[in-house]
């Protein structure tokens, strides 16, 4: 499979396979609501992901690595937002993402015929539109004094919660290919839902800094879902005011999906930055 096709096909499939989708359910800076009074968080974020992928088909295999800078250069529009509501021990998290990618047209000349004396111009271009929506519900299973607590009056603690939810993915990767005078468009909307289960841990390092660790697994090959999807997120959040916080961290997402005769494996990883408003 020529390099032009590898990159184009991979970019379309990878985008559909959750660029920044993995941003869903960032650990954030969650704290239990005070005295049962609910509190809320709204956040925006950017994930600097690089992508490694492997696509196996009856016609052949293709693998590629795409850097974040390559993905960013092909971005038309992206919008990502997260909301969290805390009700004492219960939490509800919603994440939504919209992504629109378009590559430049890549052109190559290939030679056909028994002696390779027939030059043919080949070009390809990929466009992608994608939506990712997630809703999960968590429950705090413990809240104890943390390792950095200096005494009974120091409220720094360690909190853990379990959560269950679902992630809806809808994407249309479209490949526009022209070989000589012939052209064709390949691509259609694909949608599926992955159930997921996971856990979040929050450790107060100081009164304003929180270490967050999160992991989940999903898919489970139920219906049209992924065969297996798992992720891990580590974040460090700083509350620089009573109502605002900044998070830095690292996200890893691994997906395996079978579609017809194709097997698609994707691994997305990279740092992220997020800002939250609490009220």
Description:
Strands 1-4-5-7-8-10-11-12-13-14 form a ten-stranded antiparallel barrel. The protein has one domain (3-135, 167-193, 239-278). It starts with a helix and ends with a strand. It has helices at residues 3-16, 68-73, and strands spanning 39-47, 50-57, 60-66, 75-87, 90-102, 106-112, 118-145, 157-179, 182-186, 190-204, 209-218, 228-238, 244-259, 262-278. A hairpin with a 2-residue loop joins strand 4 and strand 5 (90-102). By secondary structure, the chain is mainly beta. It is 7% helix and 65% strand. It is built from two helices and 14 strands.
List keywords for this structure.
2 helices; 279 residues; disordered N terminus
Overall mean pLDDT score?
77
- Return the string of H and E elements: HEEEHEEEEEEEEEEE
Low-confidence stretches: 1-26
Between the first and last Cα atoms, what is the distance in angstroms?
53 Å
Describe the strand arrangement of the main beta sheet, using strand numbers.
1-4-5-7-8-10-11-12-13-14
- Give the tally of β-strands: 14
Oligomerization: single chain
* Total of DSSP H or I helical runs spanning 4+ residues: 2
Main structural class: mainly beta
Strand % is: over 45%
Please tell me how large the radius of gyration is. 22 Å
Percent helix: under 10%
Summarize the main sheet.
10 strands, antiparallel, barrel
What overall geometry do the principal axes of the alpha carbons give?
Answer: elongated
- The total number of structural domains is 1
């Amino acid at each position: 499979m020529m390099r032009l096709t590898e990159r184009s096909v991979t970019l379309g499939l990878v985008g559909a396979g959750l660029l920044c989708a993995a941003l869903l359910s960032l650990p954030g800076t969650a704290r239990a609501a005070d005295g049962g009074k609910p509190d809320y968080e709204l956040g925006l974020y950017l994930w600097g992901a690089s992508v490694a992928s492997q696509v196996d088909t009856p016609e052949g295999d293709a693998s590629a690595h795409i850097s974040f800078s390559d993905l960013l250069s092909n971005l038309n529009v992206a919008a990502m937002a997260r909301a969290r509501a805390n009700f004492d021990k219960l939490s509800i998290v919603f994440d939504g993402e919209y992504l629109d990618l378009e590559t430049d047209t890549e052109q190559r000349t290939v030679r056909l015929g028994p002696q390779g004396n027939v030059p043919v111009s080949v070009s390809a271009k990929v466009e992608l539109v994608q939506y990712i929506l997630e809703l999960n519900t968590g429950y705090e299973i413990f809240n104890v004094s943390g390792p950095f607590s200096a005494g009974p009056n120091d409220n720094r603690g360690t909190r853990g919660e379990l959560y269950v939810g679902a992630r809806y993915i809808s994407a249309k990767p479209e490949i526009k290919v022209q070989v000589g005078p012939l052209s064709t468009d390949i691509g259609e909307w694909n949608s599926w839902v992955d159930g997921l289960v996971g856990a979040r841990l929050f450790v107060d390092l100081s009164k304003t800094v929180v270490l967050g660790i999160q992991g989940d697994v999903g898919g489970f090959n139920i219906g049209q879902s992924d065969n297996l999807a798992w992720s891990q997120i580590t974040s460090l959040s700083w509350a620089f005011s009573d109502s605002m916080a900044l998070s830095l961290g690292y996200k890893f997402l691994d997906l395996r999906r079978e579609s017809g005769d194709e097997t698609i494996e994707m691994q997305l990883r990279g740092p992220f930055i997020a800002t939250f408003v609490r009220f």
